[in-house]
Design goal:
- The structure is a single chain.
- This protein has 198 residues and is α+β, with helices and mostly antiparallel strands.
- The protein has a single domain, classed as Jelly Rolls (Sandwich).
- The protein is built from 4 helices and 13 strands.
- A hairpin with a 2-residue loop joins β3 and β4.
- It starts with a strand and ends with a helix.
Length: 198
Amino acid sequence: MRPLSIEGAWVHEPKVFPDDRGSFHEWFRGADFRAATGQDLTLVQANGSVSKRGTLRGIHYADVPPSQAKYVQCVRGAILDVIVDIRVGSPTYGQWESERLDDVNHHAVYLSEGLGHAFFALGDDATVVYLCSEGYAPEREHGINPFDRELAVTWPEGIAPLLSPKDEQAPTLAEAEQRGLLPRYEDCVAFRNRLRAR
């Protein structure tokens, strides 16, 4: 697993073994995960989504603690996966990073507690699976508008985005900060340190 520029986010780049039947790869290994992150991934919920071309899901995050860490892979088609640092006080606050996840390179991303997450489907039937450290709890879930001009995420051009009403109406990062909705970096680090001590 390779760390990304935002602390608390990694990309897993497995070796893919192709042959005349197809291919094989290991998309998650507990020992490699622990070596990279310093903790185990507690699996509480596994999600799957299928999206039309242009579907934009996010930017989503959950209250810390416990938040919801995610290990994400695209098993059919391709997506642009985006991780946003929304942790107030973080050295990379307001920055984002993207990774193409698809059914050819089989990369996966892990984003730890307190980070924002979104993805954009690059084709029809883009199928994404997530391993989650916590279950979905609507009262703890929040969103940031993916078209926040200050964040300036570079979304794919030439594809009309499809958003849910909730994502369309989500506040900007600055508005969420003003409302006290964002996690604090120090709380996220302290929470992860407690998980590592287990």
